[in-house]
Automatic annotation (TrEMBL):
GO terms for molecular function: methyltransferase activity. This is Class I SAM-dependent methyltransferase. CDD domains: AdoMet_MTases (cd02440). GO terms for biological process: methylation.
Amino acid sequence: MSASEGYYSDLEYTSGYYHELGPAHLRFCGLLAGVDCLATEAPVYLELGFGQGVALNVHAAANAGDFRGVDISPAHVANAQVIADATGSGVRLSDDSFAALMARDDLPSFDAIVMHGIWSWVSEENRRIIVDLIRDRLKPGGVVYLSYNCQPGWASLAPLRHLLKLGHAAAPEGDARARIEASLEFMEDVAAADSRFFAENRPAAAHAASLRKVDPLYLAHEYLGEHWHVPYFSDVAEALSEAGMSFLSSARLLDRLDALDLPPAAVALLHRQKDPVMRQSVRDYLVNQQFRPDVFVKDGALLSSADQAARLDAQPFVLICGLDEVDFDVTDAQGEAAMPEVLYAPLAMALAADDFRPKTPVELLAAPGLETARKSDLIKALTTLVGIGVLRPAQAFDEVARMRCEGFNRLVLERAVTGPHLKHLASPAVGGGILSSRSAQLFLRVWLAGARSTEEIAAAVWDVFQITRERAARDGREMITREDNLAALEPMARRFIDQTVPLYRSLGIL
């Protein structure tokens, strides 16, 4: 592992996409926090440790700007370059170590530096290099996104990582997946042997059981690296303060809505904490935080209340799913909570109106059922819908961005048949990726090939099933005959025509 500086490298990382890293989301976080930050619509942007490069390539395709990324794995860089070539975005990729990156004399000054999970996985020396890079190469007003495992939520879970490491070390050298399986079996053997640790630590027992459902690639990179760092928020804030950074916001927008997330006594306690670091630290105990997606800013200029309100009034929003997929229940730190349908039902209808056309808060307040809503309640509702993943801030885009996104999406649709499957389509209207089921991808694929009626679309997807040896399912039962498969596919094709096609048009995908 020395060539990878202690980072797990026996298997490649997963092909995940994280919209929180995108410039549009970072701008919205700044707007909600009342700070004018440099996550511009054409940023100079750097992702550290980009994995398979899905997020970096989506954001480079869907936005103007200068996008760059480094990852120490040559395999990751090669895979990401295949995607980059499909988009024509010109994203610049390298397999530099962080030290080598820092030593380069051709780096620009950046508007945004982002990293997903990296802070938890790299050595203390590399964390210092990251801080130095931010201090020296991030512009004033620039933002940093970093996500990481954190305390106190990991206090009872950290011993699981130790067991997995012990099991992995004891497994015979050879097949990497077999060694991961051996480490899981070792942990399970310890848990099954009337272990008092697991009996007295129910969260650890539940977490151990859940690891069987986790992608082995993720499990390996999350738990088996040489360096494993689970800090408190205050530790991270102190480290970044050395680079002139201040906490801006959680990128998980539901964390901003304390009344939704916490009981009244906890909200009152938080409101007494005037220091932002203290406030976030206390909040982590109140929700037993295990993972933080944080946004920091360097010398960000505060917006006046009037300027913030004007920008929010002008910010369009667009649904990223069909109306029937909007759920009025939200899961938070206290469990499930129902959103008041008196506000959210007409809001969802208004957002879906005019074939999902993006709309500003000013337009929404004039929609049926929302005429008497308070603007503050509407903004909170829009933030909630963004937070639960059914809505995004929208942006203007040009034909160049549309064409780059089309290139990415063609690759996605090819892989829907050939693999490896990618789960997101690139949307220039939101500057990022949109979750897309494989069935939606297959329907889109045949739509682009010219199929238009439900019968044509269902028959074309059935032809794909003949290649991939798949079947449709209805009521949990796999269909066998062609006739039964077509009968199951045709209602899905009708929904695709009625909802997905206009939605994808509004998102710039079609």
